[in-house]
Amino acid sequence: MKPIKVGLLGLGTVGAGTFNVLQRNQEEIRRRAGRGIEITMAAVRNIERARQLTGNSIEVVADPFAVVNHPDIDIVVELIGGYELPRELVLKAIANGKHVVTANKALLALHGNEIFAAAQDKGVTVAFEAAVAGGVPIIKALREGLTANRIESVAGIINGTTNFILSEMREKGLDFATVLKQAQELGYAEADPTFDIEGVDAAHKLTIMSAIAFGIPVQFDKAYIEGISKLEAADIRYAEQLGYRIKLLGITRRTRTESGDGIELRVHPTLIPAARLIANVEGAMNAVLVQADAVGASLYYGKGAGSEPTASAVIADLVDVTRLATVDPYCRVPHLAFQPGEMTDVAIVPMSEITTSYYLRVHVKDQLGVMADLTRILADAGISIDAVLQKEPGDQTDLDIIMLTHQTREKNIDAAIAKIEQLPAVISKVTRIRLEALS
Questions:
Q1: Cβ distance 11 to 22 under 8 Å?
Q2: What is the largest CA-CA distance in the chain?
Q3: Is 431:239 a contact under the CB 8 Å cutoff?
Q4: What is the DSSP secondary structure assignment for residue 360, as one 8-state letter?
Q5: What are phi and psi of 186, to 5 degrees?
Q6: Which CATH architecture has domain 355-435?
C-alpha cells in the first residue's frame, strides 16, 4: 500500500520534533499504521533553516496555501498557532478533502464547532491529541478509553508554565515576579507570558476537554478565567500550613443549580489537600484527574509541552488518521466523542452559581472585635468556617486572618467579601482562593 503523504504547516519546535521522531521511528510507526507515513512538504518562514533541518529531503515552501492545495498531500498538520490564518488554512484543507492534525488548542476552543462541522460534511477527520496536555493522551482517554462511562468531572493542571512558577514559589518562598523572570530565562515562559499566567491557555484546553467529556459544543466564551499573577508568596505559605497546595486548575463538572442541570467551566488558582496525588505534581508537568461512574477516579500525568512529547501526540494522530483513511466517515470516532446529532445544549453555569469552599485572607488592624465582625458577616451570609489562622506578617499593629470556609455559593462569598472590605479595621482587599477537595 502506498505511503500516506503529509504536509506540515510550521517547522518550529513541535514541527521539528514531529519530523525527527517520524524519521527515527519510521519502521515502528509503519508497522503500527499499516502503511508508511511520509512528510513530503512543509511551509515555513525560514526556508534555509528548514532545509538544514530536513537535509533537503522534503519540499519546503513559504506559502502555506501551497501545502493545503497540493493534490498529493493526504494529511495537513497545522502547527503554526494563532487564530485566523490557521482557521482559514484548516477549512481550506478540509474543503480540499484532506484530513487535518492540529496542536492548536486556541483554534479549536474558538472555532472548533465550525471546523468539526465542516469536516463532518466533507467526510474527513480532524485530530487534535497534541492540543491538550502535550504528550499526555488525555483526549483519547476521554473520547475512547472512557466511552462506557458517564463522566462526572475533569480537573487538570494543564499549563506547565504556571505549575513551574507555583512549584518554585512554594519550594523557595520566592515572589511571583522573581519566579516568572526565572521561568522566562529557562524557556518555560514566553517573553509575553499573558496567555499562560492569566489562565487563557488552560481555558482553551479545558474548553476542549469539557466538550468531549459531556457532549456539548465548545464554548470558550463562557469559561470563567482567573490567573496566578496576583498570588502572593504568603498565601502559598499559609495554604501549606493548613495542609494544602495551590495549583492553577481547570475544572469542568456536571452540577445542579437552582435553575437546573448545568456544566461548570472554570480556570483559577485552587487549594488542593496536600495528600492528593495531583497536588504533588511539580515543575512543568501536567496532570488531569477524571471522575467517572464506572471506573471511578483516574489520573493522567506527563509532560505537557516540549518538542518530542508533543510530537508523540501529533504522530499518534497521524497513525490514527492513516488507519481511518479508508473507513466510512460514519464509523469513525466522532471529533467530540458523541455523534454530531447527539450533542446536547446543557448550559454552562455562571460563576456566581458555583458551589465550592474558600480560602480567605483578610489583612486587618490588630484590635479587639475584628474576628467577631468577620464571623458575624460570614454567618449572616450562611457561610460556616472550617479553620482559622492568625499570623503577624511583620508589623505588630496589623495581622493576617486566614479562614477556610465550608461549601457555599460564589454569590454568597462575593456578598460577604464586599461587606468585610467595608469594615474600618480591614486594611486591604480580601484575598479569595477557591478550594477543591477532589475526593
A1: no
A2: 83
A3: no
A4: E
A5: -85, -5
A6: 2-Layer Sandwich (3.30)
Phi, psi dihedrals of residue 250, rounded to the nearest 5° = -100, 125
Q: Which CATH architecture has domain 4-134+307-335?
A: 3-Layer(aba) Sandwich (3.40)
How buried is residue 422: exposed, middle or buried, by Cβ count under 10 Å (0-12/13-18/19+)? exposed
> Where do the domains of the chain lie?
4-134+307-335, 139-303, 355-435
CATH class of 139-303: alpha beta
Which residue shows C-alpha cell 506540515?
Answer: 8
By C-alpha distance, which of 304, 300, 268 is closest to 286?
A: 304
The one catalytic residue in 205, 222, 230, 419 is 205
Contacting residues for 294 by C-beta, under 8 A, at least 6 apart: 148, 149, 150
Each residue's pLDDT tens digit in the chain (439 positions)? 899 999 999 999 999 999 999 999 999 999 999 999 999 999 999 999 999 999 989 999 999 999 999 999 999 999 998 899 999 999 999 999 999 999 999 999 999 999 999 999 999 999 999 999 988 999 999 999 999 999 999 999 999 999 999 999 999 999 999 999 999 998 888 999 999 999 999 999 999 999 999 999 999 999 999 999 999 999 999 999 999 999 999 999 999 887 789 999 999 999 999 999 999 999 999 999 999 999 999 999 999 888 999 999 999 999 999 988 767 777 788 888 888 888 898 999 999 999 999 999 999 998 899 999 999 999 999 999 999 999 876 667 889 999 999 999 999 999 999 999 999 999 999 999 999 999 8
Report CA-CA distances (Å) from 340 to 95, 117, 207, 254.
19, 8, 17, 20
Give the type of residue at 331. Answer: C
Q: Which residues pair with 244 in a beta bridge?
A: 273
Q: Which three cell numbers stand for residue 157?
A: 493542571
205 is catalytic: yes
